[in-house]
Amino acid sequence: MAGPVQSIERAAAILRLLAGGPRRLGLGEVAASLGLAKGTAHGILRTLQHVDFVEQDASTGKYQLGAALLHLGTSYLDINELRSRSINWADALAARSGEAVRLGTPFEGQVLVIHHVFRPDDTLQTLDVGSLLPLHASSLGKVLLAYGTASLESASEAGLEAYTRHTLVAREKLTRALAEVREVGWAAEIQEMSMGEAGIASPIRGHGGLVVGAVGLSGPVERICDSHGRPRPNLITLLREAARAISRDLGAAR
């Protein structure tokens, strides 16, 4: 019987390495972590990039998991369908709100960004598709937790990380916040993952009303929130309208 194929083993090791950390990795970091020659690591990364299993950031040259892996391990919905039915609504939401739009689904105890529309201005922005966000510190994640699409136990298994002094790390406070999300129908993060940044998100439902993902707006606090630090009502309205439209396209009841 033939033995394992070394190149596939190495490719799998690179994918596990990229999946195991919260940040993008450079070629040198990948090669050093796995004990590979840079040329070998680069060849494998280029191949994985060609099949969309890996993406490379244009500005930094660093690598992260690619969009083609998004549907793996997701049994309740074809991620490609979620993305395809969301694209037009996400584009319209970005244009109407003037803010960046992200679409997220649960993945191994985190939020996987499966679609990202840049804020429609000339500012420098980084594509977040394939990025992993914390469930408890992101508005997308709070929506998934609140409606049972992601598990609070998986989010707190190793302890909730405090990204800023505003991050909800006490289980009781997070539980109360999730109850409020279910009550009002949307979630917010205000400087909980990154100082100076804020976001709001609303659930996307599929057949039977099951929440299958979340759509959100994100940007600087002063753009997302009013002078009192509360999310702007007009942005919440636009967001919820887009979420309902996507949900209808996925077969959710009106």
TrEMBL record:
Residues 68-252 form the IclR-ED domain. Residues 5-67 form the HTH iclR-type domain. This is IclR family transcriptional regulator. Keywords: DNA-binding, Transcription, Transcription regulation. It comes from Streptomyces mirabilis. Pfam families: HTH_IclR, IclR_C. It comes from the Bacteria. The lineage of its organism: Bacteria, Bacillati, Actinomycetota, Actinomycetes, Kitasatosporales. PANTHER family: HELIX-TURN-HELIX TRANSCRIPTIONAL REGULATOR, ICLR FAMILY (PTHR30136), HTH-TYPE TRANSCRIPTIONAL REPRESSOR ALLR (PTHR30136:SF24). SUPFAM superfamilies: GAF domain-like (SSF55781), Winged helix' DNA-binding domain (SSF46785). InterPro entries: GAF-like_dom_sf, HTH_MetabolicPath_Reg, Tscrpt_reg_IclR_C, Tscrpt_reg_IclR_N, WH-like_DNA-bd_sf, WH_DNA-bd_sf.
